[in-house]
């Protein structure tokens, strides 16, 4: 097995993809809008991926946060609110906000489980700050670390109730970034003491099965390498200080915050301590290059992957989703 999660090009597995995936054996897959049409089509695609590997617990990921980051859209699927909706409710009714976030996540997970998706790349535990990049913006759960942690825990719990694992991101924190890491490398100049508030939500939820790095350079910790490519940050901050021993994914390796060819980016991420390199775009030449550049998955990463896979318990009953949505909307109306 190669320590990588790949994207796909289209609505079905193309013949060249089928042969390549069978030979390279990636750890899982991630889906985007280009892979999604209808419920029946999407379920057929995820079933085909599982059948290809003979693996009923194959990690199949998606970015379905709600708000502007939603790959599954109406009319085939429901629309869900962004994180800021729960932050606003927390201002007036914290307990109601936590329950609304949990209910919303469970309802969202039922949509995913119904079509065979097992992992959602949410919650964001990035602590927002005024003036931060709009790339985070209304996706964030708040500006206070323990609020973010409380709402994030509710999201993880709700997703799991619906049969889907969550992913805490973007470790060790994207909130202070002034630029969008999709477009350029953010440099954070805060000192170590100030960065304590950024890592606090991740420490509070360090028992999550899956986490994701951010392509952010923290001058207090590593003046040359962003978190994804920094052995010091992954070992000393993510693994030790945060205490996260779950499966660590890189963020998408195609983002412009990173330099060099994509296969080299993948190799550097895994060498730095990421368990899994994330390659989202389904470009065959890049995927072949990554498969050649990466070693086989390490024993430690395989053990973390196995733990995450064991926690996947897909839901089989979606009949209560409407009740969940009604309860969520009644709570959100309080704000």
TrEMBL record:
Keywords: Glycosidase, Hydrolase. Its EC number is 3.2.1.52. GO terms for molecular function: hydrolase activity. It is an enzyme of class 3 (hydrolase). It comes from Blastomonas aquatica. InterPro entries: GH (IPR017853), Glyco_hydro_3_AS (IPR019800), Glyco_hydro_3_N (IPR001764), Glyco_hydro_3_N_sf (IPR036962), NagZ_Beta-hexosaminidase (IPR050226). This is beta-N-acetylhexosaminidase. SUPFAM superfamilies: (Trans)glycosidases. Belongs to the glycosyl hydrolase 3 family. Residues 16-306 form the Glycoside hydrolase family 3 N-terminal domain. Pfam families: Glyco_hydro_3. It catalyses: Hydrolysis of terminal non-reducing N-acetyl-D-hexosamine residues in N-acetyl-beta-D-hexosaminides. PROSITE patterns: GLYCOSYL_HYDROL_F3.
């Amino acid at each position: 097995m190669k320590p990588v999660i790949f994207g796909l090009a289209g609505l079905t597995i193309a013949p060249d993809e089928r042969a390549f995936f069978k030979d390279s054996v990636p750890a899982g897959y991630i889906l985007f809008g280009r892979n999604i049409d209808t419920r029946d089509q999407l379920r057929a695609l995820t079933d085909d991926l599982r059948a290809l590997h003979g693996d009923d617990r194959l990690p199949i990921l998606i970015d379905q946060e709600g708000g502007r980051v939603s790959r599954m859209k109406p009319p085939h699927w429901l629309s869900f609110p962004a994180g800021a909706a729960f932050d606003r409710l927390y201002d007036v009714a914290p307990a109601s906000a936590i329950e609304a976030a949990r209910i919303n996540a469970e309802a969202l997970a039922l949509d995913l489980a119904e079509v065979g998706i097992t992992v959602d790349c949410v919650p964001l535990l990035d602590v927002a700050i005024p003036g931060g990049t709009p790339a985070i913006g209304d996706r964030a759960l708040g500006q206070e670390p323990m609020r973010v942690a409380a709402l994030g825990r509710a999201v993880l719990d709700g997703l799991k109730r619906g049969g889907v694992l969550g992913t805490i991101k973007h470790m060790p924190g994207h909130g202070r970034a002034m630029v969008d890491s999709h477009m350029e490398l953010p440099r954070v100049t805060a000192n170590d003491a100030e960065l304590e508030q950024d890592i606090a939500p991740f420490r509070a939820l360090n028992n999550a099965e899956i986490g994701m790095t951010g392509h952010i350079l923290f001058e207090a910790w590593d003046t040359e390498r962003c978190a994804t490519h920094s052995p010091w940050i992954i070992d000393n901050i993510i693994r030790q200080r945060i205490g996260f021993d779950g499966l660590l994914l890189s963020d998408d390796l195609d983002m412009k915050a990173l330099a060099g060819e994509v296969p080299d980016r993948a190799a550097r991420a895994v060498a730095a301590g990421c368990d899994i390199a994330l390659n989202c775009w389904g470009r065959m030449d890049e995927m072949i290059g990554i498969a050649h550049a990466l070693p086989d998955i390490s024993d430690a990463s395989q053990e973390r992957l196995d733990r995450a896979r064991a926690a996947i318990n897909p839901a089989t009953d979606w009949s209560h989703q409407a009740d969940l949505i009604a309860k969520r909307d009644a709570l959100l109306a309080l704000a």
